Amino acid sequence: MIRAALKSLLGRKVRLLLSTFAIVLGVAFVAGSLIFSDTLNRSFTALFASTVGDVVVRPENAGTGDGAPSTVTIPASVVADLAEVPGAARADGNVVSFGVFVVGKDGKVVSGFGPPAIGGSWSDAPAGHGLEGLAIVTGRAPEGPDEVVLDSRTVSRAGYHLGEKVTIIPSTTLATERRSDGPVDVKPLTPRLVGFVGFPSGGSLNGATYAAFDTPTAQDLFLGGKDEFNDIWVTAEAGVSQGELRDEVEKVLPDGLEAITGDDAADESASQLMKAVSFLTTFLLIFAGISLVVGAFLIVNTFSILVAQRSRELALLRALGASRRQVTWSVQLEAFVLGVVGSTLGLGFGVLLALGIRALFSNFGLDLSGQPLIFAPRTFIASYAVGIVVTMAAAWMPARRTARIAPVQALRDDVALPEATLRRRLVAGILLVLAGLGVLYLGLFSDLPHGGWQTGGGILAILLGVAAASPVIARPFLLVTRATYARVFGSVGNLAGQNALRNPRRTAATASALMIGLALACTMAIVGDSAKASVDKSIEDNFVGDYVVSNVIGTGFTPAIGNQMARIEGVDRVVRERFAGAERDGDRLPVAAVDPADVPSLQLEVTDGDPGGLGSDRVLLQRSWAEDEGLGVGDEITVEMPAGERTYAVGGVFEDNPVVLTPVLLSLDDYAAAGFPESDNALIVFTDDRRGIRLQLDDVVADLPIVTVKDQAEFAQEQREPIDQFVLMIFALLGLALVIAVLGIVNTLALSVIERTREVGLLRAIGLSRRQLRVMIRLESVVIALLGALLGVGLGIGFGIALMYAVRDQGLEVISVPTGQLVVFLLLSVVIGVLAAVFPARRAARLDVLQAIATE
């Protein structure tokens, strides 16, 4: 039986090729996602290990929330004390600031939206365990206020050379105000480039930019000229462990400071970052699962056709003594071999996919080009397990169904499914749909944990249920199609309609693969269109002021910009907004800050408490969050801030408003006292609409490419762009699932032509031309594609509306169905049907008539 199974497999290599390709794509997604994730993890682990000392001394609560340095600093005198600690070889103070952007010669900011733009003081202190950290690889260290060193990758991307002046835009106040004479000037810094830094033994900053000045200049720029540091590295003497040195350091630390080992600091930073980007792996693995589900339909269809075609062969084996189990496992052996081959090829394509993902994210600033790909054992185990299990599971039902056919019945080639089988499929499908609706309801409308998994499970159950019931559901559509074809295309159309009706299970199963891809695509189209419509409505209803000023990178910018704009004639008011991340009970808590005098200008609807109840350790809370947390006016809320634990009284509760998107609103003074840097994230500018005022506002930021001025329409467009980019990325990934579905149609038609070789020969013999034969097969393909499209669009509309209805309380109040886009999907399905039939139709037209008639 093993020899017979392998010989049968080798005799049908071409027929199984397309099914193998479906497994290849699914496994490639799994392998590529895991390879990229492991590479990302290893690269950041190595990076952080080489950018910390043996012991790191820092203020308590450093890294709270967003992980950026706080304004809480360490006096320089502590450095000298730590250098005298037993076991310490040296101690070095460091100045670190985020939001120090390097502008290239082309006028564009080098930094991206992901990796940070880091600035600070240059130090030659060694990394922990004696590792070689950042070092000068070309040139020399900076000396004086007009010199800087940059990392080599940034220099290459910016196009600078040694000795040239570099354009740098910091986000702090003092970087601009202290360097101006008289009126505040927001011109960027232009120090001279005197050195390149990098890792001499290999490695990179993974897309981050690094600009370092000498220590006095860094203190002047980022710490207001105070002789202080953000953290201190203590280097261990030979033979002293990090833990031993940390214990000695802790003995002499003043209150408010903490010491941690370099290993712990590196692990903390790496784990925080990997937690932040872990969604990438999950995101890609979700689409791997979608591809595998769609591929499973193709495999089921392929094996169903193949075992039906081999019914004579299998019946003969039964007659010769083979048991049902042997027949079943002979087909399973073929599926196992197919799974191994598909998984192996999928691993190879997974490497290419990982390279592609790495190249894609390098465009967004996450540059891992200097890091080798990591091939962990779990990648191989997961890839082969997924590929083999999915293939064998997909082949199990066709194998069992064939084994139950009586030998005599199979020898007559009478293998049509009885009506009772179709009724059982309908009942099973309805039960799956009902169960899926229940789980989907829990995921969308209940407060149970892991709602995302419940939502996904409900959608999958509904899709599988509709797929199971589709042979019965599709029958009215197929009958209408046959009648329509017969009227429009005559006898050729009638033949095409009858062929689609001949095996509704096969037709519906092939259409189901396309249905899944289009259902998800339509869902995302509705979600994206509704999100954009909600953004437009929200901005239209709540936009205050005349212009919004913000950083295109998404980080803060110097308050000097607001100061200068406030002095422009015709500007009535400039409202500053600042955002940061704190922590509460171990969870991240976004906070915002405004001047209490500006609350009326923001038009916040304070329904409980006093609209003026902001400031002096009093905060305003967003209603939805306050209700979830059970907080009201007069209650107290304790939050972990960079400067330590802070307790605030609730002075008021305001209705959810897109102007203030965070749950907690502080005053600017409380925000600064909490240890957050004084940089603005947004300005709302109120003017008297006099002519030319927009040009004056633009002139303020003319030399700052990271800061833009926008009116209401431009601001709305800016908010829509990320939604469009996200939806396009989803469509690109779903495109692979649709490719598998198209391959399924090609495969089904090709195998159907092989199965009907004799029938095709007889049709040709009685006068059917080659052109008519090709038309007939194209019409069959269009039926399959249209069926899948109609089911997919219908389900997608339902899923999309349900998802948007479930999130209506989160600011997405508008449900918009992009009718034009859905019509395009239906039209594309017709095109898909025509294109998918090209190869099978050409093959059928080339059959020799006499040989086809003689085929058994």
Automatic annotation (TrEMBL):
Keyword Transmembrane assigned? yes
Protein's organism? Nocardioides agri
Origin: domain of life? Bacteria
Membrane topology listed for this record: Multi-pass membrane protein
Keywords assigned by UniProt, alphabetized: Cell membrane, Membrane, Transmembrane, Transmembrane helix
rRNA-binding as a keyword?
no
Transmembrane annotation, as ranges: 16-36, 279-308, 335-361, 381-399, 426-445, 457-478, 508-528, 726-754, 775-807, 819-839
Mind telling me what this protein is named? FtsX-like permease family protein
Q: Name one Pfam family in it.
A: FtsX
Note the PANTHER family from the entry: ABC TRANSPORTER PERMEASE YTRF, MEMBRANE COMPONENT OF TRANSPORTER-RELATED
Q: Where is the ABC3 transporter permease C-terminal domain?
A: 286-407, 732-848
Q: Where in the cell is it found?
A: Cell membrane
This entry's Gene Ontology molecular function terms read: transmembrane transporter activity
What family name appears in the similarity comment?
Answer: Belongs to the ABC-4 integral membrane protein family.
Q: Which GO terms describe its cellular component?
A: plasma membrane
Q: MacB-like periplasmic core domain spans which residues?
A: 17-251, 507-669
